[in-house]
Amino acid sequence: MSLSNYTRVSEFVIVGFPSLQPEYFVLVAWLFFFLYVTTAVGNLLLVVMFTLERSLHEPMYIIMVSLALSDIGFATVALPKLIARYWWNDGSLGFHTCFFQMHMIHYFGSLNSLILLTMALDRYLAICFPLRYPTMMTNQTMAGLTLFCWGIAHIFPGISTINFSLMPFCGPNKIIQAFCTTMSLKSLVCVDTSRQYSLAFAVAMFILYVPLAFIIFSYICIVISVLRMAKGQGRMKTFSTCATQGCIISIYYIPRFFVYVTPFIPNLTMTPDKSIATTVFYSLFPPVINPFIYCLRTKEIKQIFRRWLQKRKVSFELIEITTVCCCCKSGP
Q1: Neighbours of 69 (CB within 10 A)
Q2: What is the biggest distance separating any 2 CA atoms in the chain, rounded to whole angstroms?
Q3: d(CA 221, CA 182)
Q4: Which topology term describes how it sits in the membrane (predicted)?
Q5: Tens-place pLDDT, residues 186-203
Q6: 11-320 CATH fold
Q7: Helix (H) or strand (E) segment spanning residue 266
Q8: 202 exposed, middle or buried (CB, 10 Å; 0-12, 13-18, 19+)?
Q9: Non-local CB neighbours of 216 within 8 Å, separated by 6+ positions
Q10: What residues contact residue 210 under an 8 Å CB cut-off, 6+ apart?
């Protein structure tokens, strides 16, 4: 039968975890709602802190804010429909809406990879070229790099989105995944997608592992430079800063590496539920945990939090004193 005799799919349905029993739907919806609120509030707090505190107007914190905004964007694109799927059993997505979600999910994934590359570049220049760093990496330079990353990140997923949107979808419309992705839509296309998928896979590997190669190179150079330093506070502070960013980079890359190499490991297969759980983990865990890493590992941010809490404590004490004085004056 020719493709012209098929009815074109007008909408897709997000299935989520196929083996999940209905009695657990509300619990899962609350879990994803909690993850979304935690991600949005935690990362938004960092953005507000950067805006209010002039002491944070430095290249390193511009990167952190960029990553925080990217994490908020990813969670906003990915989670609301997944929450609706389990809260109201509403997993339907329009044809073009699904492709928009696919593009944005891959976009924020590409953007995070470029942001982590910029983060590694910043630390490499700061530690390996400390005397030239203030002139090489100014706030204006970092802002320009950040805007460049936000713009160019559209190109890589855009290739896959355009290719797959032109494919005929005429069969099942149920997506066995938590959101629309190239992998989840590949099995729903009516024709052979090996060429398009190979191109999408090559683009994904390029945007993921070319930055990773530079990140590994830069951190090797950083470790060598730090070991050459004299022992003391300077070395510990440098290691502390790099450890913070190393945690963020590891959380982003290691789970993805595991997912990508699984198909090439003999006798190792993943059920749809395990595959979805792994995808959800490496997609949502970094945006949730990043703000806590910043707060626990970054000395400047911890000091700002302490100062804010101290001001709040003083304000409450003044309010209590004022209230007591007013009560005394109005008494008999």
Answers
A1: 19
A2: 96
A3: 36
A4: Multi-pass membrane protein
A5: 878 887 777 777 777 788
A6: Rhopdopsin 7-helix transmembrane proteins (1.20.1070)
A7: none
A8: exposed
A9: none
A10: none
Nearby residues of 102 by Cβ (< 8 Å), 6 or more positions away = 157, 160, 161, 164, 179, 180, 181, 182, 185
Q: Which of 85, 69, 68, 73 is nearest to 33 (CA)?
A: 85
Question: What's the CA gap between 135 and 199, in Å, rounded?
Answer: 40
For residue 40, with 0-12 CB atoms within 10 Å meaning exposed, 13-18 middle and 19 or more buried, which class applies? middle
Residues facing 174 on adjacent strands = 13
Do 91 and 15 meet the contact criterion of CB atoms below 8 Å apart?
yes
Return the residue matching tokens 């309010």: 319
Residue type at 247 in one-letter notation: C
> Mean per-residue pLDDT for 133-141?
91
Nearest-angstrom CA–CA distance, 190 and 192: 7
- pTM of the predicted model as reported, rounded to 2 decimal places: 0.84
- Whether the CB-CB separation of 181 and 108 falls below 8 Å is answered with no
CA atoms within 13 A on the CB side of 58: 12
Tell me the C-alpha to C-alpha distance, in Å, between residue 317 and each of 12, 304, 305, 321, 325.
Answer: 56, 20, 18, 6, 12
Beta strands in 37-173 (DSSP E): 92-94
Sign of the torsion angle spanned by Cα atoms 282, 288, 289, 294: positive
Tokens (6 digits) for 297: 């590992």
Residue type, 125: L
- What tens digit of pLDDT does each residue of 145-181 get? 999 999 999 988 888 888 888 888 877 888 888 888 8
Tokens read off for 254:
């290691």
Contact status, residue 294 vs residue 301, Cβ threshold 8 Å: yes
Nearest 5 degrees, angle CA 78-CA 296-CA 109? Answer: 25
For residue 287, the Cα-to-chain-centroid distance in whole angstroms is 5
